[in-house]
Structures are given as structure tokens and as C-alpha cells.
Amino acid sequence: MTVPLQPLTQEERHARFILELLLDDPAGKGPALDGPDWPLLARLAQRHAVLVRVADRLVDLGVPVPPGFAAAAEWERDRARATLDVLRLVQAACVRHRIAWMAPKVLQRYPDVGDDLDLLVFTSDVAIDRLVLEDVPVTCERPSFANRLSGSTVYTVAGAMASGLVLDVHHGRVGPAGQHAAFARVLARNGQRHVLGGTELCVPAPEDQLVLQGLEKVAGRRSFHLCDMLQTIAILRRPRLDWHRVLATAVAHGGWDGLSCYLHYVDEAHARLVGRELLAVEQRRTLTLHGWGHATLREAGFQFPAVRVTGWLHGRQFGRSLGRAEWNTALRLGLWPFAMMGTRLAQARTW
Length: 351
Prior knowledge:
By secondary structure, the chain is an alpha+beta fold. It is built from 15 helices and ten strands. The strands form three sheets. The protein has a five-stranded mixed beta sheet with strand order 1-2-5-4-3. A three-stranded antiparallel beta sheet has the order 8-10-9.
């Protein structure tokens, strides 16, 4: 891969600054960016769910930050503390009622929160939410066609606790159309315990987390974020990462194309911002890294040709499901464009 020679944009310069901060080795020196645009840095870090990590690293380095930047980071810390309180209550309820569950994306963002908090329960029974959230004051949002298709229910936390936090509870399925029920069972089987702020949670194994990113970060999405990229880098740098297991799992669940696409974007962004390729020779040889177009960094995220990419990936999965006579999966994938159209129309009416 040839690293693009065009000068970095303002957003890219500040994203590079963020990566230098957060990827720095323990013995390294702090990064240098002459005259950072603090409002831009705050917006970029917040939209990409890395604001608290950036603020904490700057404090560690003794870098003075403007009051506005510090205030934004403290607001996000408050949200993280409230989110941990919710997770503690969910975990206590699930232990009490012997319910298996997982927080599949919390480690991508924490100590930032992002737009919502995803929970995965390993049953299709929506009624279980009453037990999972029995100690959390929530209001249930009206389910859309897209929610029904994906097997998810959306709640908003009410009252003083984490007011306004959105909980997205998935029921035995992952993927934008809920097409990956079998992979959800893989997540359950391989889940690992992780202690976050004193609360023990179940999270995906690193290999499964990488496959999950490939399944969910590009198909049906318009962008991904620096928090996603940072987790991907951390997983790929693990000394004992079982790459053959990653590939085998992705192939078994129709995720090889999505994984190739997503890792192409991350590898390209890493080369442009960090100055060197991320993927090892073995990994590059086993993926298709061409033909996906390019992801361009914006404040809102790394944006890529979403319509073309989603059409290709869903078409491949749809054809695969027909070839395997997986009729439920094929039906979900066939209905998904109509669900998205309804979502877009509903959003347009709210403006």
C-alpha cells in the first residue's frame, strides 16, 4: 500500500494527535502538535468517543487544557459513571435471575459512552427485559420495523440515574438485520469475564470481537470511529491473537467480506495517520483489501461509500443464505432495505 501524499486535513492532524497520545508506549514522550485547535479537538474526540482518554492522557503529560475542554471531558466522565451504575444494576439482576448476557461494545468506548449502550441477552424472549432492567428506571421506545427485524428493543433511562442514556437490548441476534443468530451463540460460548469499574461483565473474546466489528462496522453503517479503530489496533497487536480462528469464524458466519472491508479502511487510516501499515503480511494475504474505496475522516467519523459497500455485503450475505437454505436469514436481509427506508423517512419527519 502506498501512503497518500496529500497533506493531512485539520481533522486528520488532530486525529493523528489523538492516536499519538493513546497509542504511545509507556516509555515514550508526549506527542507534539503546534497550536492545537482545542474546540476542534474536543468535538473530534467527543464524536469519536475518546474524549475522556485524551483528557486523562493530557493530564498525565502535564499539558494544560482550556476550561471548555476540561468541562466537556468531565461531563463525559459523569455519563461514564452513570453508565457503570446501570451496568452494576443489570449485572446484579442477571445474577439474581440467572440470565446470561453480554456488553459487546462497552470496551470500544469506555471511559467514554457514545450514543448508546448495547446489551446482548442470549434469548429471543423480549419479556426477559423486565427482569434484566427491573432495577433501572426506563421508558420503552416505540419499536420500529428496523428494531423488530434486528431483534432489539430500545429503552431510555429515566429519572436521575443516567438520564437520557439509551439502552439497546439485542435478543439472541447481532447484525443490522438480526441475521447473525448463530454468531450470537458463538459470542455466548466464548465470552470472557472483564472487570470494569469494580463490576464483572461478560465481553466477547478478542477474536470474536474482531469478527463482530467486521459484521457490524460497515454493513448498514455510514461511518466508524476512532474508538473502533483503537480497539481494532489493540486486538491486532495482541501477541497471542489466533488469526486462523478469526478467519474461520468470519468465513463460517458470512463475515469474511465485511472483515476484509473494515480492516482495509482501518489499515489505510493507520498508514495515513500513523505512517505505517497495521496489518501483518499473513493477514494481508488472507483478506481482500482492494475494491472497497476509501474511508475519509470527518468530525462525525470515518465516512466511506456506504451505499455501495452495504449493497455489496448484504447481497453477498443474501446469496449465501439462499444457497444454504437459511430462509429466516434470507427473509431478514430481504426486508432490511425497507426497514432502513422507513427509518430514514421517520427521521426526515422529525426535522
